[in-house]
Structures are given as structure tokens and as C-alpha cells.
Amino acid sequence: xxxxxxxxxxxxxxxxxxxxxxxxxxxxxxxxxxxxxxxxxxxxxxxxxxxxxxxxxxxxxxxxxxxxxxxxxxxxxxxxxxxxxxxxxxxxxxxxxxxxxxxxxxxxxxxxxxxxxxxxxxxxxxxxxxxxxxxxxxxxxxxxxxxxxxxxxxxxxxxxxxxxxxxxxxxxxxxxxxxxxxxxxxxxxxxxxxxxxxxxxxxxxxxxxxxxxxxxxxxxxxxxxxxx
Length: 228
Fold this sequence. Notes:
Blueprint: H1 6-22, H2 35-42, H3 46-58, E1 62-65, E2 69-72, H4 91-115, H5 118-132, H6 138-155, H7 159-168, H8 182-203, H9 207-227
Antiparallel strand pairs: 1-2
Helix pairs in contact: 1-3, 2-3, 3-6, 4-6, 4-8, 4-9, 5-6, 5-8, 6-7, 8-9
């Protein structure tokens, strides 16, 4: 179970790690400190550190290698909007972020349905499969969720839509996936079904259906966030 306000702590740690990579405290190719070391440095749990690194991994800034740790791949882009997400803490900020995603991703889903390739559908299926296999780790759920949305943007064949989503990064996935209790399991089941409807509409080249499915998913995400 994550500690209280774990999402806010993760936002803070991710922002600090991004700044350290950006100012080359850790340059490209260097190894980040271990999870234990980072937890001590930032005064948080290893779970929070793991989630923050997962976001960096999803954004393409680090790569985690088994038995070695996380290696810096690249610096955040200049003016990277994702860095400002470290200041997103309030409920209203999170709702506004989902509203921004709705404005971007509904159009991306519609374009994906008209432009998708077979390879794009394979990517959607891979991300959906990874999300369906998530059981406990919040970092795995966030990474898999973001990977699906990124695959939709990629399928739109509009590089600017993809770049905007990448600038938001995995930190845009605002609903934490925590624990193993019934509520969290039910949440993941609902999210998975919402994603599957988006995938099916894109696969069927149904632009209207894909846009509607994406809007329904993000509207439901806003409602879940407000209830939580």
C-alpha cells in the first residue's frame, strides 16, 4: 500500500530527478543512484522512487537494466512541459490536466482510426496486454496505461500530437494504482475495458467510435478522480 499523498511525493521526486538529469548532475550514460539511496536522499519510500523512475522510463529519459539499475538515456527537452507537472498537487490541477488530455487525445483517437496501420494495432494490443497483466505495482500500471495512450497518439500519424503527449509523460496518468484490494481491482478492470473499447474502434477504423470511446474514458477518469 502506498503512503498517504504518494502521488504528490512521486510528482516531487520525478521533478527533482528531471532537474538533476537536465542540469547533468547525472549525464547521459551515467547510472542513477540505487532506489535505496534515492529514497534516503529524498526522504520517501522505495515505492515512490520506483514510480518516479517508471515515469522517467516511460518518457524515454532513463532505461532500467536488470541487475544494473537505471541509466540516463537523454536530457529532458528544453522547456519540457512534463517538468512543470511536479507542481501539480491539487484536485483541480489534476482535473484540468485530464481536461487538457481530453482535448488532445479525443482527436488523436479519431485520427488513429482513419490512419492506423496493422503495426499500430499490434502496438495497441501489446500495451493493452501489459495493462491486463498488472496486479500490484503502481509503477507498472502507470507505465502500461501511458504506453497505451502513447500508442494511440503514435497511430494518429501526427507527430505533434505524439510530442505533446510525450511532453506530458507518464505523470499525466493521474489516478494512482495502489494495493490489491477489491476497489483497486475493480478500478483496473474498468480502465482495461475502457481502453479495450478504444482499441476496438481504432482497429475497426471507426473514427466516431474511437473519439467517443476516448472521451468516455477520460470523462470517467475525471469522475473517478473527483470521487477519490
